[in-house]
Write a structure and sequence with these properties.
Blueprint: H1 2-11, E1 24-29, E2 34-38, E3 41-46, E4 51-59, E5 66-72, E6 78-82, H2 83-89, E7 91-96, E8 106-107, E9 110-111, E10 122-124, E11 131-134, E12 140-141, E13 144-145, E14 148-154, E15 157-166, H3 168-182, E16 186-188, E17 210-216, E18 222-229, E19 234-241
Antiparallel strand pairs: 1-4, 1-7, 2-3, 4-5, 5-6, 8-9, 10-11, 11-14, 12-13, 14-15, 15-19, 16-17, 17-18, 18-19
Length: 249
């Protein structure tokens, strides 16, 4: 339990994952001015800040080298470019499609973004971080007994929740509960150090003792995972909802 709680403190400031499952999409973040072609002729220009989605890979005209058919994410324009030039001049990355069904707008009846004072009687669990548990919370989920349920707040608004449970048997039961609500999860692994995408690239550490499944919405504003940690004989379900940044006065 202590290990999981320490992990949650760290996750409060750095969430997002390195996922190693398919299907994936490849994107190109343009770093300098460049040109996109079609049938050997100039089609459109791209500039720093533009993003291209790789539609498919094909043999270049003339049979020399590999080319990508690409789509400008902002404009929708289609064109072609050499793979070697893109890799030499721009940033290439892959993301995993993790969108899930019946996206929850709340956790146990508490809407994301709800104010701290609307939660009734809470017990604070840490002097430094806004982490709480409900007094007299019913510690079950989908008919499965759990050890604890913890609530996190950002700027006094509800944005994260954690459920801790024991045994691999309960992990399997709770995973079925989540899949019945949100569809099939994607098996994935650990934290992405860059912290801004759900990367398939080889970043982040892998831990064979973790058995983790993810659900993430299309905008990457809401994520959910369940994992079982064999060494501890415990697991957790973790919800994260990204709140808008606090406006500066």
């Amino acid at each position: 339990m202590k290990k999981l709680f320490i992990l949650l403190i760290a996750l409060y400031f750095s969430l997002f994952a390195c996922v190693t499952a398919n299907p994936t999409k490849t994107y190109i973040d343009i770093q300098q001015a460049d040109k996109i072609y079609e049938f050997g002729k100039f089609k459109y220009a791209v500039n720093p800040g533009d993003k291209l989605e790789v539609v498919r890979s094909k043999l270049c005209r003339g049979g020399s080298g590999e080319c990508w058919e690409v789509r400008n994410v902002r404009t929708g324009e289609i064109g072609y470019t050499r793979v070697d030039r893109m890799k030499a001049s721009h940033r290439i990355y892959k993301t995993t499609s993790l969108a899930f069904q019946n996206e929850p707008d709340s956790f146990r009846g508490n809407k994301w973004g709800s104010r701290l004072e609307t939660f009734g009687e809470l017990e604070k669990l840490d002097d430094e971080y806004p982490i709480y548990k409900k007094v007299d919370e019913e510690l079950t989920m989908g008919g499965v007994q759990v050890e604890s349920i913890v609530y996190f707040f950002k700027n006094d608004q509800f944005n994260m929740a954690q459920v801790v449970f024991n045994s691999e048997k309960n992990f399997k039961k709770l995973r079925k509960v989540l899949e019945s609500r949100y569809g099939k999860g994607v098996k994935g692994n650990y934290l992405d150090p860059s912290g801004d995408k759900f990367y398939e690239a080889n970043v982040g550490r892998k831990s064979p003792e973790r058995n983790r499944y993810w659900w993430v919405n299309k905008q990457h504003k809401l994520s959910l995972y369940i994992e079982y940690i064999e060494n501890d004989k415990k697991g957790q379900i973790y919800y994260f909802h990204e709140l808008p940044d606090k406006k500066q006065s």
